[in-house]
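Board notes (copied after class):
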Amino acid sequence: MLAAQREGNRALASELRPLGLTPSQGEVLRLLAERQPLSLSGLGALLVCESGSNPSRLVDRLVTAGFVHREVDAHDRRHVELTLTDAGRRAAEGVAVVEGRLHAWIAEAATGHDLEQVRGFLRALVTGRGAGDAVALRASAAADADPGPDSEPAHSPGR
């Protein structure tokens, strides 16, 4: 399992290198592209690469590189809001392309295998741990954002 994780990380790092990004930086850019604006603590809760930690140094490098804009709340200086710059949006699009290639590689390797059992095992392995909590939070946030075609809005005009 560790060998598979390392190979996946090596492949991701190799694909991101031409973009001048690390896998951790790519994860931040993709999360911001999907969910911006995010607070620093909100980003930290969603990160798998540094789950449960304060991603300040990681964000600092992305701010310095011109990919992320950091806005400090005028009324509460402890609250920092993060958004992508134009360069950050372009970089996040590049990361999405890289992730697509990586997912295709994984799908090809998975052909002919029972993935439901593998998914169940991996889910059980990370449940209640930092990375598992981050993945669960992402999934619940995605479900909240997209309730599906059969759900009704909480409030409709004219009702």
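Comment from the instructor: The CA atoms of residues 21 and 118 lie 30 Å apart. Helices lie at 2-16, 23-35, 40-46, 56-64, 86-110, 115-126, 130-145.
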